[in-house]
């Protein structure tokens, strides 16, 4: 009965729900680029306005040392449970812009093979404005149909894509305000539109920047070449040595605290549907590659990684310039799994990278942001409520999965607020998060809006 009411309301307001998201996607809220500071404020204000319109009380823009957090709540009965919704209104940079088929901040709706009903193409459509906004619309729907069964608090931040450096201190200062029973987040993926799934874990992150310096200035590569260290050659060699022939990471101590799964747990994980051929076809690769002894899902879900995210130095302009560079740089990320610690792994990496540098160069390593890995207990009330909710709208029990991505604040929600998070994502990995032509299926958007109220219902029951 209730679900009928909800579906009827969503159906009647579909167009407006979409138009409102389109408007939100037009603001380029790129947290990584200072020039977008005014857009960040504008987006925070838009989110605030939408929460008010949806029926939230005490809506405020909370200043932090960085970009603000938008807070709002609806307390219907203090004896009822409280769901704390987390999401982020910031997005990744859209570069390289020339690879987009339409401008990243001018949303268009197009059909694709995977999204025959259409998908909305724009930076942030899936990660995370589209997924975050489902919660605002689900809340509106529950308010308007008188079906909100418990209390809700919204916490929408603007710095997730830069590692949430100011959200940790903010939640510590606002423990009382954020008191609740569960954190609900839609910022992850399902396996496919006909294979619902719920992430039971996220990887952590340690992000490093390395600088290798050789001679004190760029040199003629003929006059000096062969007699001094070329920092780019050296850097490449150092990076290459970080993996052995089995693609194990060679940083001493790197695997010390990695939690090995039992063979039962691994065979449980192997039940998650995965089509290697489709995976390869989607990425246009002839062969997958990763750590020996593990499946693709294990490589992204339960194993740590070390990857170069960017590397530069020397001459990269037009034509050829014969130069022996003075410096070389790389950004290196390590994805972490339980029970690795971001700080410990950063320290191990720094020590190792400095130790493998030949005397002919100088090496400087600095650590950027990081985050701890998390696991969500799949037998908890929250996970079961999410599972029942999805089962009802998809007609299939969702598969528990482990995601390769990171949401650094999730570990802090547990540590500082004592709350587990439910990773109630509705996007697809193939939606192009952080890539050109990011999109979010209309099916996924509306399905999310219809499924979220069921989470509230089963969590409160
Ligand atoms: N929403 C993603 C994380 C994600 C995506 C998890 C898909 C699972 C499936 C989030 O916005 C993100 O991109 N996180 C960053 C964290 C970093 C910037 C600190 C990541 O994983 O690289
Ligand atoms: Mn995200
Ligand atoms: Mn992201």
General description of the model:
With 461 residues, the chain is α/β, with parallel strands linked by helices. It has 2 domains: 2-202 and 373-460, Zn peptidases (Aminopeptidase, 3-Layer(aba) Sandwich), CATH 3.40.630; 204-258 and 304-371, 2-Layer Sandwich (Alpha-Beta Plaits), CATH 3.30.70. 33% of the residues lie in helices and 21% in strands. The protein contains 13 helices and 21 strands. It has helices spanning 2-12, 14-25, 37-54, 129-144, 167-173, 231-240, 263-269, 276-283, 296-301, 342-355, 381-394, 409-417, 442-460; strands at 57-62, 69-74, 82-88, 108-110, 119-121, 151-157, 182-185, 189-190, 197-199, 201-202, 204-213, 219-220, 305-313, 323-324, 327-336, 362-371, 374-375, 399-401, 421-423, 427-428, 439-441. Strands 1-2-6-3-7-19 form a 6-stranded mixed β-sheet, sandwiched between helices. α1 (2-12) packs antiparallel against α13 (442-460), α2 (14-25) runs antiparallel to α4 and α5 packs parallel to α12 (409-417). The longest helix has 19 residues, at 442-460. It is globular, with a radius of gyration of 23 Å. The chain starts with a helix and ends with a helix. The structure holds ligand BES and manganese (II) ion (2 copies). Ligand BES binds at residues 127-128, 160-161, 163, 187-189, 205, 369, 371, 403, 405-408, 433. Residues 127-128, 160-161, 163, 187-189, 205, 369, 371, 403, 405-408, 433 line the site of ligand BES.
């Amino acid at each position: 009965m209730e679900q009928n009411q909800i579906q009827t309301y969503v159906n009647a307001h579909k167009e407006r729900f979409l138009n409102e998201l389109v408007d939100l996607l037009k603001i380029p809220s790129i947290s990584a680029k200072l020039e977008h500071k005014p857009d960040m404020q504008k987006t925070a204000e838009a989110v605030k306005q939408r929460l008010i319109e949806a029926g939230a009380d005490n809506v405020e823009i909370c200043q932090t040392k960085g970009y603000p957090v938008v807070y709002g709540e609806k307390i219907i009965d203090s004896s009822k449970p409280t769901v704390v919704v987390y999401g982020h209104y910031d997005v990744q940079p859209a570069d390289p812009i020339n690879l987009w088929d339409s401008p990243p901040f001018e949303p268009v709706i197009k059909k694709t093979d995977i999204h025959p009903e259409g998908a909305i193409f724009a930076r942030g459509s899936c990660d995370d404005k589209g997924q975050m906004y489902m919660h605002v619309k689900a809340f509106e729907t529950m308010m308007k149909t008188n079906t909100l069964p418990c209390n809700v608090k919204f916490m929408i931040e603007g710095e997730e894509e830069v590692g949430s450096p100011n959200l940790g201190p903010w939640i510590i200062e606002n423990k009382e305000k954020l008191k609740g029973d569960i954190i609900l987040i839609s910022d992850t993926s399902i396996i496919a539109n006909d294979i619902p799934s719920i992430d039971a874990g996220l990887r952590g992150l340690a992000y490093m920047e390395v600088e290798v310096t050789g001679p004190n200035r760029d040199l003629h590569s003929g006059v000096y070449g062969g007699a001094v260290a070329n920092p780019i050659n050296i850097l490449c060699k150092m990076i290459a040595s970080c993996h052995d022939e089995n693609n194990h990471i060679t940083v001493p101590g790197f695997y010390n605290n990695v939690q090995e799964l039992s063979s039962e747990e691994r065979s449980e994980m192997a039940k998650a549907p995965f089509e290697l051929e489709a995976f390869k076809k989607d990425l246009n690769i002839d062969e997958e590659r990763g750590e020996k002894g593990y499946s693709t899902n294990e490589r992204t879900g339960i194993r740590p990684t070390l990857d170069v995210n960017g590397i530069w130095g020397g001459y990269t302009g037009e034509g050829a310039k014969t130069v022996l560079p003075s410096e070389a740089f790389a950004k290196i990320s390590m994805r972490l799994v339980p029970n690795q610690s971001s700080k410990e792994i950063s320290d191990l990496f720094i020590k190792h990278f400095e130790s493998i540098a030949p005397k002919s160069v100088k090496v400087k390593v600095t650590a950027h942001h990081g985050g701890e890995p998390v696991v969500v207990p799949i037998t908890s009330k929250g996970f079961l409520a999410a599972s029942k909710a999805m089962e009802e709208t998809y007609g299939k029990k969702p598969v528990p999965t482990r995601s390769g991505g990171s949401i650094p604040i999730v570990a802090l929600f547990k540590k500082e607020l004592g709350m587990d998070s439910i990773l109630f994502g509705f996007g697809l990995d193939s939606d192009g998060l952080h890539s050109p032509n990011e999109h979010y299926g209309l099916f996924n958007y509306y399905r999310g809006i219809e499924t979220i109220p069921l989470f509230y219902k089963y969590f409160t029951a």
